[in-house]
Design brief:
mainly alpha, 5 helices, 248 residues, 94% helix, rod-shaped
Length: 248
């Protein structure tokens, strides 16, 4: 086995080991994601795409070279030469076996390399998805708690509104009763005021009549006093006359 195919064989063994390690079930995707985020991988990440593409191209070239070798030693001409010379037959079959071996090694190396790249990508995507799902679950839980809180607040406000409505209706009934009571008192007051006005008018008329009667009596009193004075004057005059007559 030449140096290049020895390298490819060891590369194949390394790929098998890495793929088996990546497929270990008890190592979570988050753990692999934390491993892939080590500083050494971050330092190598700028060269990763170039190295991966270069390895794919090398494996593709080796695979097609192995295909060419298989077709070369499985054709009719080498088989005819092998039938003529037995030593050539063993040599041709040895070359064909090596070409087929190299074909399998390069093909499986290319296949496992692509599988390993895809597995690493899927592990990173699964880890990111798990983190996002955890964040989404947290947000959903907070949203559910907020919704429950809002629902409880709405129920509390609804109950408070119903209580306020009941108290408001009770207050309205009480106010209606008070308004009716005040209306009755106002009506009674108006009736009392009307009655007092009537009594005041009657008293005014009575006072006016009394004043007129007083004026009439006062006039009669003055007339009576004047008549008495006149009588007293007449009596004095008569007495004076009698005195004079007696003196004569």
């Amino acid at each position: 086995m030449t140096l290049q195919w020895t390298f490819v064989a060891f590369f194949l063994y390394g790929e098998i080991a890495v793929n088996l390690i990546l497929c270990i079930p008890f190592i979570s995707a988050n753990r692999w994601h934390s491993v892939f985020n080590w500083r050494i991988w971050k330092c190598l990440s700028p060269y990763w795409n170039k190295c991966s593409f270069t390895m794919i191209m090398v494996l593709v070239v080796l695979f097609f070279d192995a295909v060419r070798e298989v077709q070369k030693y499985s054709g009719p001409e080498p088989m005819q030469d092998a039938k003529v010379n037995p030593n050539v037959y063993d040599h041709v079959h040895m070359k064909l076996f090596r070409a087929q071996r190299n074909l399998y090694i390069s093909g499986f190396s290319l296949f496992l390399w692509l599988i390993m790249i895809r597995v690493v990508t899927l592990l990173n995507q699964v880890a990111v998805t798990l983190k996002n799902s955890a964040a989404l679950e947290t947000q959903i839980d907070s949203a559910v708690r907020a919704a429950k809180k809002h629902q409880e607040d709405n129920l509390r406000l609804k109950q408070a509104f119903l209580d306020d409505e009941k108290s408001t209706s009770a207050e309205n009934e009480q106010l209606k009763k008070e308004v009716e009571k005040l209306a009755g008192q106002l009506k009674e007051t108006q009736e009392a005021v009307h009655k007092s006005h009537t009594e005041v008018d009657a008293m005014r008329r009575q006072a006016k009549g009394l004043a007129q009667e007083y004026d009439r009596l006062l006039q009669e009193h003055h007339k009576l006093q004047f008549f008495l004075l006149k009588l007293q004057g007449a009596g004095h005059t008569e007495r004076n006359a009698n005195r004079n007559s007696k003196t004569e």
